[in-house]
Amino acid sequence: MSITATIASVADADWYMASVAGTLHFVFVFFKAFQQRNVAFMHYWWVMPISFCMAGTEVFAVGIIAVGAITAESWLELMPYAFMLGLLGGLGAIVAMWVHKKVLK
User: Fold this and answer.
1) Per-residue pLDDT tens for 69-89?
2) Rg, the chain, Cα only
3) Are 20 and 79 in contact (CB under 8 A)?
């Protein structure tokens, strides 16, 4: 595959669905980081509700990514998903640490 074909493949990728999956991943990682802090600081009452929130967001995010992977003509079309999930997942963890510290002290 030539470099121009590679660039075209990434440019043709579905950035909208990658953004939706990234946003769901932000929420999932937020819940996951929040849950880790709940466990570390013994906040028992928060564990079950956050667990259900994690399950819901993970199912939807994985579903969107799976559809993107099935319909992709090349693995390069999945690069927007990897970028958005990495970026927004990291931000989700940072925001969760800040919110947990402010809300539950």
Assistant:
1) 998 888 888 899 999 999 999
2) 17
3) no
Q: What is the pLDDT of residue 9?
A: 58
Strands (E), 1-105: none
Buried b (16+ CB within 10 A) or exposed e, 4-42: eeeeebeeebbeebbebbbbbbbbbbbbbbbbebbeeee
Query: 68: closest CA among 7, 25, 26?
Result: 25
Integer CA distances (angstroms), 68 to 87, 103, 104, in order: 18, 36, 38
The percent of residues above 90 in pLDDT, for the chain, comes to 73
* Residue 84 near residue 19, CB atoms below 8 Å: yes
DSSP letter for each residue of 64-93: HHHHHHHH-SSGGGGHHHHHHHHHHHHHHH
Average of per-residue pLDDT across 43-49: 95
